[in-house]
């Protein structure tokens, strides 16, 4: 069993990381993923989303199974009966059975299932490692790659009430850190970003942040930093020309 666990952990560590963190209006998902076709973050149901790292074909099968479970349960009973906790239990049973079975190799995947509530205190985030255990997370969580280092960075800097732009900036900064303590530069084209936005009037709260909106959120932080540095120094000389008649 120790060998199987080590095999799964090595496979997961080769994948690029995913960060999930709460902000004032919902839950933010940020993944380092240059592909626009193979998603690491996906919608499952009205208020529930799924993120994963590891082997794509394995976690894609789990995602499809989760969508089928949610649709069937919502149709049979009620849409409110579909919860992240119930979905996490289904995934835990599946992963646990595969991990303990000697007939097949363990899945090289680590999952996050999140559900946005009516308020930040109602949000739910569950992390599911390869062995099928369930970890109830709060605030922020990272999986894949150098997840331990990223999680430590997030724990020190994440706080309640972040705006979307502030949360995105923190997530990108954490993903940009490498194992040696240095920092890389991540562009909008290298990121997959989505949110569960509790303020959306639609029943479905999942939304991908793409294109101009993503670039604007990333640039807004750069512009704010430039403005702060300008405020600390002398005002530019060009400002006087704005008063010309």
Poorly predicted spans: 222-245
Mean pLDDT: 87
Strand-pairing-aware structural class: alpha+beta
What's the alpha carbon Rg, rounded to whole Å? Answer: 20 Å
Question: How many beta-strand elements?
Answer: 10
- The 3D shape can be described as globular
Secondary-structure element sequence?
HEEEEHHEEEEHHEEH
Tell me the number of helical segments per DSSP (H or I, 4 or more residues long).
Answer: 6
Order of strands, main sheet, comes to: 8-1-2-9-10
User: How much helix is in the residues?
Assistant: 25-40%
Largest sheet composition = 5 strands, antiparallel
Strand fraction equals 15-25%
Keywords: Cytoplasm, Proteasome
Function: Component of the proteasome core, a large protease complex with broad specificity involved in protein degradation.
Family: Belongs to the peptidase T1A family.
Pathway: Protein degradation; proteasomal Pup-dependent pathway
Describe this structure in words.
With 245 residues, this protein is of the alpha+beta class. The protein is 39% helix and 22% strand. The protein has six helices and ten strands, in the order αββββααββββααββα. Strands 8-1-2-9-10 form a five-stranded antiparallel β-sheet. A five-stranded antiparallel β-sheet has the order 3-4-5-6-7. Strand 9 and strand 10 form a beta hairpin. The longest helix has 22 residues, at 211-232. The protein is globular and about 50 Å long. The termini are far apart. Mean pLDDT is 87; it is low at 222-245.
């Amino acid at each position: 069993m120790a060998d199987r666990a080590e095999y799964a952990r090595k496979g997961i560590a080769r994948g690029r990381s995913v960060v999930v963190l709460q902000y004032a209006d919902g839950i933010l998902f940020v993944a380092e993923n240059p592909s626009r076709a193979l998603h690491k973050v996906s919608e499952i149901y009205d208020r529930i989303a799924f993120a994963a790292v590891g082997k794509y074909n394995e976690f894609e099968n789990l995602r499809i199974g989760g969508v089928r479970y949610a649709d069937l349960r919502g149709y049979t009973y009620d849409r409110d009966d579909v919860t992240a906790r119930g979905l996490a239990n289904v995934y835990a049973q599946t992963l646990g059975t595969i991990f303990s079975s000697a007939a097949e190799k363990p899945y090289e995947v680590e999952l996050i299932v999140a559900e946005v509530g009516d308020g930040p205190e109602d949000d739910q985030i569950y992390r599911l490692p390869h062995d099928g255990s369930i970890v109830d997370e709060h605030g922020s969580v990272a999986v894949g790659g150098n997840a331990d280092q990223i999680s430590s960075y997030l724990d020190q800097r994440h706080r309640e009430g972040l705006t979307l732009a502030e949360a995105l900036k923190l997530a990108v900064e954490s993903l940009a850190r490498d194992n040696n303590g240095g920092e890389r530069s991540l562009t909008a084209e290298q990121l997959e970003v989505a949110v569960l936005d509790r303020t959306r009037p639609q029943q479905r709260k999942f939304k991908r942040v793409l294109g101009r909106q993503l670039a604007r959120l990333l640039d807004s932080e750069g512009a704010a930093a430039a403005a702060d540095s300008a405020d600390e120094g002398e005002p530019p000389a060009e400002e006087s020309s704005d008063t010309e008649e």
